[in-house]
Amino acid sequence: MDSSQILASCQLFKDIELRDLPLLLTCLQPRTVVYAKDAVILHEGDTSKELGILLSGAIQIVRNDFWGNRTLVSRFTEGDLFAETIACTGEKSQVSVVAETETTVMFLAIRKIITSCSKNCVFHNAIIENMVAILARKNQGLMKKMSHITKRSTREKLLSYLSEESLKANSRSFRIPFDRQQLADYLCVERSAMANELSKMRSEGLLDYKKNEFTLKNRHPLD
Length: 223
Description:
This protein has eight helices and eleven strands.
C-alpha cells in the first residue's frame, strides 16, 4: 500500500476523496521522517506542536516509572495517529513514543489542521470533525484499558482483555496486536505469571491459543 492509500485510510482524512489529498497536503505542508528500530520519536516530558501519522512500521506508546518498569500504553501501526492530544493541549507528554520497527512518520502542524487557511480550503471542517472523533475514540480506548488493568488478578485482567477483543472481532476466535511481552506490559502484569495463567486456563478448557491467535471456549471462566 503506497502512502496516498495509507493516508486515505487514516481517520483524519475520513470522507475526503483520494484525488483531493494532494491539494489538501499542499495546504497542510507535512514533513516526513524515517526512524530506525528502537529510536525514540517522542520523549516523556517533551512538548509538540505536531501530530504524527504512521506511513509505515509500528510504534509503541510506553511509560517508565522511577525504577525502570515499563507500561505499554498502546501500540499503533500504518495509518494511525499519535501525539494529537499534546499537540492540541500544548502540555508535556506523559509517555514516550518508540519505533518498534523502522518507521516512517508524516508530521502535521496542529495549527494548520484546526484553523482555516488563507485559501479557504473546503476540507478543514471535515478534518476538524474527524479530529474530534479521533480524540473521543482514543479516550474511550483508554477507559477500556482501565477496566482491564484495575481487575485484581492476572487471570481477571486477561479474561477482561480477551473478552473485549472477542467482542470487537465478533468471534470467539481472534488475533490480538501484541506479543507476550507487549501483552504483559499492556496489562501491567509479570510476563512469567501471565504465561502460567494462560497455560492454566488452556488446561482448564477456558481458551486455546497459538502465538497471538486466541479462541475462547464456552465454559464460563468463573465456574
